[in-house]
Design brief:
Elements: H1 2-39, H2 42-53, H3 62-78, H4 82-99, H5 102-118, H6 122-138, H7 142-158, H8 162-178, H9 182-203, H10 206-225, H11 232-249, H12 255-272, H13 280-295, H14 299-315, H15 321-338, H16 341-497, H17 507-532, H18 535-544, H19 550-560, H20 565-572, H21 576-589, H22 598-605
């Protein structure tokens, strides 16, 4: 028994170690394959990915598997095997969905987006890239986000949408920096340089031309700072772009321009000689070198560069026919310039053959594109049909459930109907009795409230009579005071007349008449106000808590009648300053803050 347990324990340890080793092997193989790709060793890259594919996948990390199939899909795109490329990309997404792993699903969507982007099916590439970005909002991975942004940049650059092209190039730069992905950062800088070239071609503004060179230099600087983290191909293409920049935008007859072209083309040539097996980069390099040699009058050297490209490109199994067509055209032009029309015609015919091949490849690619679009359309229709069937089934289930619920409710109501009939009658009688009692109680309460209201009205009437009597007394006292003042004024008039001179004749009489007329106007307005608005004073007493004096109440009435400070001072025989002090005291008794205007307040309550 003990031996049996020891055997099982050792087997379990061996099995666990084997699983861990396989996981470690897959991760290491993927890292080695990526490193080989950066170095331009594509044979090792292909071999390592094949080894990784052959590892037992039953207990592998789904994230590693999605990375593997995404890389295999890109490999098949390079080999122009689009069916396998699509199958690998779909498998990458399938693994991510089955594992319900956010990052794994994101890798799958990026793989399918890359496939559609390579075939120039932009709408599908955008759709899948956006789905990946939506998932990455929940679980960010800056390196993967930068890839999605770079795909979107590529699509919108082909669609000539300069704004979105620039936007996604900027986003790719920011995400690559955050994720410390130097390979993507170098490509993103080059992408932004392309966006700036679009801007320059449309506006011809110098700042955009300067930006092209700045961002191409930034792309190259990433490699110089950490050469092991940026692909040789990426750095070579950046140098070719720099050489093309000088060739396109600088005067070609200047030696400084030619030197710059030779310098950057030389860097690309040095790096790509060993790794550029399809001679795509070297073809471009030799084309630039041939142009400079031709400008310098060295047609023999120009021919040597072009022939080197022609020979290598025709010997490779999968040449770039675009590059071959340009090389053949260059050779044809060179021989025509020399007067060798036979060779010029030969290479012109070769150029036409390569152009035909490009056309056939384009047709094949277009056919594949249409097949993919048809498959996507059919898949979308199947998804929509399945969704419609699911909705219909759900609707049917809901209707059946509703019918069952209605039947159960009907049975329940029928069962309780007879049982509750007598109870409802008793409740109705009880309710009628209660309503009768409530009605009698409400009638008594209403009568009591009416009596209380009559008592209140009588009290208010008595209060108004008292206030009226008080106002009448005050009015009589004011009248007596006015009469006494008028007599005094007349006496002063007689005495002052004796002192009149020719200069002030009539002035005394005019002042006295004006004073008497002002006072009569004020008193008349006050009496009219009391008769029209008897509740004004009661409202003021209530608001002040019975703290306003009769004189202050009269002051409020004059303010309500919109008399100014001078007129009120004349009515009270005081200085205007005294009236302003009185207004301040009234505001305090009415509990008004300093920002409240007393005149407006009295108008509101009047």
């Amino acid at each position: 028994m003990i031996k049996h347990l020891i055997f099982l324990w050792m087997a379990l340890i061996f099995f666990s170690a084997n699983i861990y080793a396989q996981k470690g092997d897959l991760d290491n193989l993927l890292k080695q394959a990526y490193a080989a790709r950066l170095k331009g060793d594509y044979d090792s890259n292909f071999r390592l990915l094949r080894e990784a594919e052959n590892i037992d996948q039953s207990n592998q990390d789904p994230l590693l598997l999605t990375k593997l199939y995404a890389e295999l899909s890109k490999q098949q795109l390079i080999l122009a095997d689009y069916n396998k490329a699509k199958a690998y990309a779909e498998k990458s997404l399938q693994i991510g969905k089955q594992a319900n792993h956010t990052l794994a699903k994101s890798y799958g969507y990026i793989a399918i987006s890359t496939y559609h982007n390579y075939l120039d099916i932009g709408d599908q590439a955008v759709s899948y890239a956006q789905q990946a970005l939506k998932l990455l909002d929940d679980e960010p991975d800056p390196s993967l986000q930068s890839r999605a942004y770079y795909i979107l940049y590529g699509v919108y650059s082909r669609w000539d949408d300069v704004d979105l092209c620039e936007k996604y190039a900027q986003l790719a730069i920011a995400a690559a920096k955050q994720g410390n992905d130097n390979e993507m950062l170098s490509n993103a800088y080059a992408a932004y340089a392309t966006a700036m070239e679009f801007r320059y071609d449309r506006t011809n503004q110098q700042r955009y031309l300067d930006s092209i060179k700045i961002y191409l230099h930034k792309s190259a600087a990433v490699y110089k700072q950490a050469p092991e983290t940026v692909g040789i191909r990426t750095y070579s293409i950046t140098n070719i772009n720099l050489a093309n920049f000088f060739f396109k935008y600088y005067p070609l007859d200047q030696s400084s321009t030619q030197d710059s072209i030779l310098y950057y083309a030389g860097i690309a040539q040095h790096l790509s000689q060993a790794s550029d097996k399809n001679y795509t980069i070297m073809g471009s390099v030799n084309g630039l070198l041939a142009e400079v040699a031709s400008l310098q009058g060295n047609d023999q050297l120009a021919e040597a560069y072009l022939m080197d490209s022609y020979i290598h490109l025709t010997e490779t199994t999968a040449p770039s026919y675009y590059t071959l067509a340009h090389v053949a055209q260059g050779l044809s032009d060179l021989h025509r310039k020399r007067g060798d029309y036979e060779k010029a015609l030969f290479y012109q015919k070769k150029k036409e053959q390569f152009t035909d091949t490009i056309f056939n490849e384009t047709q094949m690619l277009q056919t594949k594109k249409l097949e993919v679009q048809y498959e996507n359309k059919k898949l979308l229709e199947d998804i929509q049909l399945s969704a419609q069937k699911a909705r219909n089934q759900k609707t049917q289930n809901l209707l059946l459930a509703g019918i069952c619920v209605l039947l159960l409710m009907s049975l329940f109501l029928l069962r309780n109907s007879f049982k509750n009939k007598t109870q409802l009658q008793d409740e109705k009688a009880l309710r009628l009795h209660q309503e009768k009692m409530d009605s009698e109680r409400n009638a008594a309460l209403q009568l009591k409230m009416q009596q209380q209201e009559q008592a209140r009205l009588q009290a208010e009437q008595q209060l108004l009579l008292i206030q009226k009597e008080q106002m009448q007394k005050e009015a009589m006292a004011d009248a007596l005071q006015i009469e006494r003042k008028n007599r005094l004024l007349l006496q002063l008039k007689d005495k002052l007349k004796k002192l009149e001179t020719e200069d002030n004749k009539g002035l005394v009489e005019k002042v006295i008449k004006e004073e008497m007329r002002l006072e009569e106007t004020v008193e008349r307005s006050a009496r009219e106000f009391e008769s029209i608005n008897p509740l004004f004073f009661s409202r003021l007493r209530e608001l002040s808590g019975e703290r306003l004096t009769p004189l202050e109440l009269k002051h409020c009435a004059y303010l309500y009648l919109k008399l100014n400070t001078k007129e009120i001072a004349a009515a009270f025989y005081v200085e205007p300053k005294t009236i302003r002090v009185s207004k301040y005291r009234i505001k305090q008794k009415l509990r008004l803050d300093k920002d409240t205007d007393l005149d407006d307040f009295l108008q509101d309550i009047g």
